[in-house]
Amino acid sequence: MNIKSILFLLLLIGYQQLYSQENYKTVSTVDSTKVYTGGSAYKVKTFAQKFKSEKPKNVIMMIGDGMGVAQVYAGLTANHGHLFLDNFKCIGFSKTQSSDNYITDSAAGGTALSAGQKTYNGAIAVNTDTVPIKTILEMAEEKGLATGLVATSSITHATPAAYIAHQGGRESYENIAADFLKSDIDVFIGGGYKHFTERADKRDLTKDLQAKGYQVLRNMDDIYKVKSGRLAGLTALEHNEPVPKRKMSLPRSTETALNILGQNKKGFFIMIEGSQIDWGGHQNNTGYIVREMLDFDQAIGEALQFAAKDGETLIIVTADHETGGLALTGGDMKTGMVKGAFSTNDHTGVMVPVFSYGPGAENFTGIMENTDIAKRIIDLLGL
Ligand code: MG
Ligand code: ZN
Fold it and tell me: How far is the CA of 16 from the centre of ligand 2 (A)?
């Protein structure tokens, strides 16, 4: 290795450190296979379709980042023909375009879903003039509903951030972390510990969270034990690892959060994100997409378990956009093998599916704008 290549490597390492929060956009050299070879399947339960009320008291919003129809079908094939999503009888499509681009990013896509307004790529719950716009989570808080956010990325990343923070640019992670303290969110679980503790302003926001009554926990076993009160679960320094290395469990986090929030008599709103389906798409890695899709679907199973028992809970499952332009060029329902082909390592402009279950689900069928999803939830919850 000559001096030039050593210098280049050092530069590359420095660059990666600097942009490590965006590392998922670099193509993985460890596992870049386009074929998921298959594996065992989990059992999918069938849930009742009878509900107690006309309108929901609780809303569980679930976002599969980068989850187009092909991603769903890759997961369905890998799980030998069935997903918990089979329980959703009301299905529609969402148009994902942002205010300034045919191809949205997760910040504008998140803002459309959180606040019901189209904005520019990179915007975190601000409008096209960078003026903050109120989100469903904030409206729910004002009405006395309990609120929550769960993500497998950093909790400061674009999708969860769009529900709780107001920033002109999605990369302002430390400001986004500080915005959590301006809210009265009851439960949040995700990565991003670093943005609360290793800050340019030298503040340790976990101290401020504790002063506000939060149990600040970093370990999944401790988080899982929490039955009530305010919870800040910061499960990784930055993003959580991909499945199967991930210690943070999305299904268990979902169950924990729902049990806490479900105690509020006025109801609750929560957004739960399968963040890394998108990253498998960016890396053109079918196995990564499948594993994250199945993890997300099992979290949907936990949501269904809660909603079917409760009878007044609406679940919406959708995506902010599709990633990778994934096509399925082969598969086997018996073995779970899926062969993927990709047309880009970025997002695409196609419609994404909207699945809904529970009271009010019939409002989310047909072709709709992504902003309509937020507007209809606001309407149904009377916010
Ligand atoms: Mg996301
Ligand atoms: Zn993406």
Answer: 17
Per-residue pLDDT band for 22 (boundaries 50, 70, 90) equals confident
Q: Which of 94, 98, 106, 356 is catalytic?
A: 106
Within 10 A of 199 (CB to CB), how many other CB atoms are there? Answer: 16
DSSP class of residue 44 equals P
Active site residue 106: yes
Residue 29 has pLDDT above 50, yes or no: no
pLDDT at 19 over 90: no
Question: What confidence tens digit (pLDDT) does each residue in 118-154 have?
Answer: 999 999 999 999 999 999 999 999 999 999 999 999 9
Q: How confident is the model at residue 24 (pLDDT cuts 50, 70, 90)?
A: confident
Ligand nearest to C-alpha 274: 1
CA–CA separation, 309 vs 262, rounded Å? Answer: 11
Q: Are strands 90-95 and 366-369 parallel, antiparallel or unpaired?
A: parallel
- 265 class by beta-carbon count within 10 Å (0-12 exposed, 13-18 middle, 19+ buried): exposed
How far is C-alpha 378 from the chain's CA centre?
19
Contacts 24+ apart (CB under 8 A), 25-31: 25/279, 25/282, 25/345, 26/283, 27/282, 27/283, 27/284, 27/345, 28/283, 28/285, 28/288, 31/285, 31/287, 31/288
List the structure tokens of 222. 């401790």
Question: What angle separates helix 286-310 from helix 69-78, to the nearest 10 degrees?
Answer: 90
- 124 phi and psi angles, rounded to 5 deg: -110, 95
The structural domains of the chain, ordered by start, are 36-381 (3.40.720.10)
Confidence of residue 2 (pLDDT cuts 50, 70, 90): low
